[in-house]
Amino acid sequence: MYKVLIILYSLLSLWALYSVIMYGSRPTKSLSWVFTIFVFPFAGALLYYLFGVNRRKFKFFRLKRSQVQKLYKSENEEELRDEFECEFSSTQSKKLSKLILNATYLYASEGNKVEVLNNGKETFDAVFEAVSKAKKFIHLQYYLFEKGKLQDKFYELLKRKIQEGVEIRMIYDSFGSSSFSGKLKKRFRNIGVEAYPMMPIRFGNLLFTLNYRNHRKIIVIDGKVGFTGGVNVSDRYIKPISDLGIWKDLHLQLEGPAVNSLQRIFVKDYHFASKKELLVHPKYLPTPKKIGNSPVQIVSSGPDSNQPAIMQQYIAMISLAETNIFIANPYFIPGSAVQQALIIAAQSGIEVNLLVPKKGDSKLATYSMFSNFEEFLSVGINVFVRDCFSHSKVIIIDGKIASVGSGNFDHRSFEHNFETNAVVYDKAITHKILEEFKMECADAVKLSYETFKDRSKTQKFLEGLAKFFSPLL
Description:
This protein is of the alpha+beta class. Helices cover about 45% and strands about 20% of the residues.
């Protein structure tokens, strides 16, 4: 029996080592996995299989090329692009929009109306009003769809809209929305909601799906009104249900051509989750109209993407900034590429401001996040720490371009999660978001380098230990 275990361990270790060498994305990360594989017999190889395998290399989630072309490169899409694509005069906007287009097939469109929703109450007031006006279909996609007052409100509204003949489809993450099962899920399905889990966690596919989550927050109504950002369906956004208090978050309501991009993301994910026919009928992709004056570009990234588009978007925005950068994120655990981009920006004379919560819903993530701050402070990056929990994922450069969405500054959002951001190339809208950012900074504590570097050895040890696990966070 002992010999069998030795052989099995050797085979697993050799397989894992071969996979790290062939498909490892970064040397430092690869070395960490090699260390884990050999130091922790069996467990190391299993952890690597669950959390380390770069499945983008294996095209595990890839739709058939014909389906992608049908959805993103159709004749209808090309016609829309000719009519609505922005022609930027700014080199900064041109470069960013081109990068996103090449990585996602989603172009920057003009003629959008953007409403900034600063908290849970504003978001759900707007969402429920828009849902109540739906005529043809309502498409919802969430990471958290939790039991509570908000879920009950959705149930009553969706029930009424189905009785009016409106089609309703919903995708939810099977891990984040683990409570949405059994009677709760049956409750929605019984009224006619076509609800499907994204990457369901089952015994047969656990090893393939556990590490890959749908973190998007999308609503599309009749192909005309869309919502995206960081707000989930959870009562923690409208009342304190933990010591973190009411969660603060930012969301956007969109009207115009950008909604077409949100719909294409939903259609692809719904096809993947439900295994049903791709919804490319004009009913679900109606020809948009120009509603406002804001150029907007949707960014989609995930394990089904050719490139880590969210990470590339963030690095590009940091690199393109000329005067200042403002970042708000609850899980700021960037890899070395993003860290160096920020350090280079700060040392080049660009004002860099980072807003984070003092406490989070994960102590491991919080310790890992704080482990970077001493280096940031030493090069002049301003770090503001808020007592209340801010869940917003925002980056603003030069007061001209703002990004709001679901993508965190961590390895999980960059590599493993299905994420969506909206980039707004509009000074007026960006100004609104920036004013909210500055108000939150005014209520926060600005860290001092001299004080922070003298924190306790226990704190530094916990930060260093947590940083070791940052590739998993």
